[in-house]
Each structure stands twice: as structure tokens, then as C-alpha cells.
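Pipeline run #58 for the internal structure catalog. This entry was flagged by the ingest filter as a single-chain record with no existing model, so it goes straight to prediction. Upstream metadata was stripped on purpose; only the residue string is passed forward. Reviewer on rotation: M.T. Logging verbosity set to normal.
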Amino acid sequence: MVRKKNKGALNLAGLALFLLALPLFFRMGGGQFAMAEVLPGQADTAGLSLSFLQEEEKEILTANVLGKDDIEFSKSFAISAGGRPLGITAEQLAKMQDFSYLKSNYYIIDSRTTLFPEDIDVEQALGLDLTIEKTTKEPKILIFHTHSHEGFADSDMSKGLSEGIWGVGEELKRILEEEYGIGVIHDDGQYDMVNGKGQTTGAYERMEPAIREILAAYPSIEVCIDLHRDGVAEGTRLITEIDGKTCAQVMFFNGLCRLNKDGTAQAISGLENPYLSENLAFSLQMKTTADGLYPSFSRKIYLNAYRFSLHMLPRSTLIEVGAQTNTKEEALNAMEPLAEVLADVLSEGAALGHDSP
């Protein structure tokens, strides 16, 4: 009992000495040293909102116990618009609000069309709530393939659709349902075939009536994914390494429904899209989320002049998975990260990103 009392007294004496030494410690810059171990490589607090901090933390910041110069906050804190996390840093948002930076770092723009600054407000697009209710009781996502016979380097399409992009879509459906609890319908329509022969011309016109019929039959569907495989030069390899696996890169795709005529944008009659702004927001959220989760997984967003299959729902996207130079395995491996990106945007909000190009 005596030993315990003596030990307690020593502990109290040590604590008192520590508290008495604290002011001297901070005046000597010790606070900066200590905080550096907890918050490495961080930015000055000037201009940053403190709304995400607890009241006690705000008091510490404003009481000048350490001084502003002694504390730096992480650049990677998420910022929000309308209460929704944007998934990027304030620094990255500032870069993206420079239209020249946005165009050169996030988009490939087909020469037949053009993108204008008024087409996309970055903060508004990233803040748009595109979330859905996660459930497998009813379908929430429709996956289809306007070109269902697109194959890969080692595909034997004589064995059936599972050898090509349709088989990749089946894997995406499985992961979304089993791992993320999101109900999916996977359409097996073959719109690039006419009278038993391959014909891509007119596939988008043949696809639409069938897809609209599915959407009418299942009004719970909120997301349309037209899954494709790109075509590139034979020497091009669209791959990245994720979790030790070689994956095909993906590319999100938008159609702007207008042609560039001598620097003037002209709408394409009969190919209107009432959901263009939502389409653009959807692809940008997926791109920034993918960059945050898996840098180098997503290529730049491709903007084409035409409408394609993107006008039937606000949450519509066309995704290119690799190219004809990728293997089936590489395309299948890409479905795990793609499913995570989709699930994050559609059900949990954008993931905290990292600095992009």
C-alpha cells in the first residue's frame, strides 16, 4: 500500500512538471514539431473553412495557444457543395475551375464538336446528388451493349457473347449485386446484328426501342450503362496495375449533340438530349472518383458530337473498357475497380480524391 501511494505521488509530481513546462515548450516551437508528426505536409489555414471541426478543435485553433504559423492543415480535407462531398481538394477544385486546365486534363474533345465554359460548372457538377437507394429487391441499374459482339485480343466469339464485352458486363452485374447490394438487369440484346450478320450501322437506332421497353417494364431503374470496348492502334496497350492485377483502363464517354461548324456550335436536329448536364456531371464524378481511388485507371473523358445512348435517363453513361488489344482477363479484372467507382458515386458520395494531372 505504501509503495502504491509513493508511486501515485511521483506520477502526480511528474504531471505537474510536464504542465509547467508546456508554455516553454510551445514558445520554443515545440508545438510545430509535435503537430508535424500528426499532420504532415499540410497547408496554411488561411481561407479554409473550419466548419468540419469539432467546437473544441476550433477553440484550440483560435486561442493562439500554438499560433497559426505553428499549425498547418491537410490539403486533402474534402470540400462540399450543397452538403455533398465533392471528392477533391480545394486546391484541385480551383485548378478545375480554370476552363483551359479542365479541358486539357479531363477531356478529349472530338474535332467534330466543341466544349464551352458554360457547358459545365465544375462545382455544381461534382455537387450534383446522383445517389440511388441500394437494393436488390428491384433493379436499379440497366447494363446493355449497343455493340454486343465487341471482342478482345484472345476472344473466340464463335463460343458466344460471354467471350467479349457482354461477358465483361455479366461480371460487372455480379459484383454490383453481390458486393454492393445494387440490383442490375443485364440486357442480352444483339443490336449490332441484322439477319444473322454483323452490322454496327444503325445499331443505336435498333437499340433504343428495346431499351425503352425495359425501362418501361422496370420503372425502378435509375441508371443506364452502355458498356463498350474501344478500338485503338494495334500497338496501344490500355492497362494499369490495381491490387496486383493487370486491368484494362476505362474511359467515360459523352455525346454533346452538336457539331462544330467553323467555330460555331450547331445542334443536331432530331438528336436532342434533355439530360446532357446530368450526363456530364455523372462522367465527371466518376472520373474524379476513379482518379482518387485508382490513379491511371480512368482515361480522359471522351466528348463526341453525337447523342449515342445517353438520352434516356439522367444517370446515363457510355463506358469503354479497354480495347481490342486487351485480353479478356484484363477487361474482367477492371470490373472490380469500376464497380467500386460506380457504387461510390451512386450510393456513398464521391471518394476523397488525390491530386490529378
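catalog note: Residues 21 and 335 are 57 Å apart (CA to CA).
catalog note: DSSP finds eleven helices and 15 strands in the chain.
status: ready for reviewer M.T.
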